[in-house]
Each structure stands twice: as C-alpha cells, then as structure tokens.
Amino acid sequence: MLYYAAIIVLGPFALYAEFKKILVNYASFKTEKLDIKGYAVSFIFSFLFMGLLVGSLFLVRRYPLVTFFEPASNVNITIGFILLAVLVIGSLLMKQWFYAVLAFLLAAPEIIAKIFADGGPDSENYIIISSVALFAAVIIIFSILIISSKRDAQKK
Description:
By secondary structure, the chain is mostly helical. It has helices at 2-26, 36-62, 73-93, 97-116, 124-155; strands at 27-28, 33-34. It has two domains: 1-68; 71-155.
C-alpha cells in the first residue's frame, strides 16, 4: 500500500520537476521546439523512471510488508476496463483523439500481458511482457509527438 501511495503522491512531483527542468534547459520558446538533447533526456528519464517502478514492484511482490486488502485480479481487470472505456469515450466525445489514443496505449500493455502471460499478474512473465509493451507504447507516443510537432513546424 505504501508503494502505491508513493507512486500516486511522489510520481507526479518527480515527473513535473524533471519535465520542467527539461523545458527550461532544452526548449526554445521562440520556435516552440525542443532540442534533440531534450528528447534524449526525457527518453532516458522516462526509461529510468519506468525501470524504477518495475524494479520496486518486483521488490514489493517478493518482500511484502503488510497487505491490507487485495481484490481478485478479475475484479481489478473489470474495474480497469470500465475506467478505460469511460476515459476513452469521454476523450472522444470532447474530440481529443490524442488523449483517447494515449489512454489506450498506456492500458494496452496490461491487456497484452493478461492475454499472453500464463501466471496472471503475480508472475514475472506478466510483469516482463507488460513492461516491454509499455516501453513500445512510450516509443509510439514519442513518435506521434515528434511527427505532429514536425507537421506543425512545416505548416508555419
């Protein structure tokens, strides 16, 4: 429970601080572009942050301190699908296709791992498959952002 509380509380602060630092050091406000160094630093930070999350998840699963409540995995998956559907439908109703694609790409690794991993969420295969799929999703998201920023730059 402390692990999830730390992710929820400290994760956004770490992401905000790092991306603010990247924008201050590597962004040009005149051209509204990010240097290639900025992309590299954000990619490296995202990779390390994801590695920290996955590594600490391995530690928490192998050496749990106290477990207060743990619903069945089917309950978690059902709640996740409902929330994903609400988020994607809400984004599409507001005509924000990028956020709908983003939400789906970030949820897809769990769906893929659920389909292809035998042991369920507690197995190491599940974590490895979901981590690799999330890494691929992050690469796709960065590619979409870079392509759209180049198109916007060409239009101007």
